[in-house]
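tool_log.txt
---
The assistant was asked to compare two proteins side by side. It first ran the structure predictor on the initial sequence, then on the second. Raw inputs and outputs are pasted verbatim so the downstream comparison step can read them without reformatting.
(1)
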Amino acid sequence: MKTSVKTNVFNLLKIVTAFTPWVISMYTLYWLEYGGIWHPETMHRDKFTLIILVVGMGLSFLVGSHFSAVKKKPTKH
């Protein structure tokens, strides 16, 4: 029973780790808006928003892909 709990916790940590870059990018956008740093009239705001989101989502995809690839690799005993 302990091994299944350990496996479930490990899988949850992998999922949280994979989503962390995306959450950080979303929080960065929230912080920029809430802090009044970005106004709707800020030049190239839409481009920077898109760049921040693409970087966050891309890093999340790469981390998730890494965990998926590691899971499928055969282990040597």
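(2)
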Amino acid sequence: MIEKFLHHVRVELPAPDETAAGARVRLADKFPRTALRRMTHLGLLIGSVLDGTPLGPADALVYASTFAETRALEDFLTRFPSASPLLFQTSIHPGGVQQVLIGRQQSIARLWPLAGRTRLVEEALLTALLEPAARVALIGGEERGTWMLEHDLASGRAFAFAALLTREPTGAAGRVTFTPDEATDEACPTLENFALALAARSPLRWPGAGGTWMMEWS
């Protein structure tokens, strides 16, 4: 079994109708004013969940998102043939977390950006568990799409989460474990369901590829 402990768990579940402009107003006190206008909705949510989470140059960060900056990409595509270089810059993965790290002038040891669908949560957790840094920030999130949602190319809601994974059980809110075994490869939680479990402090257990996953709370 391999395990790490969860510290500094934060989740953003904004109102379904919140826009990037609304998030700039709601979260304005968390960011420099000069940075606000360039940040995407997802970047703002990630900055909010990372607020108060201590990161240093020896720490690593695992970032998981299936669709990343959906709204920026939608706007970029609809403006062709006069596409915006700024929208292109903010539409790429992993733009959201980079906006926050650059704004903070925060250096870290390693950044692991992951994109996927059915097994993204497992891939992100396994990366965090195997990362040798003493502290690993696990970050994930999505923006709510509009017309891309109709093509199954966007999330139906906006959300973001952050947790600091360490080997230190003292003061931990919970832990994540992976036990290699002959478990059948069943459905993995979606990134949204994982975020909701973090928000509600709900336990999770599922058999994945090559072993069994479990998240439990103190």
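---
observation on (2): The mean pLDDT is 90. Helices lie at 20-26, 33-36, 41-50, 70-78, 85-91, 95-104, 120-130, 191-200.
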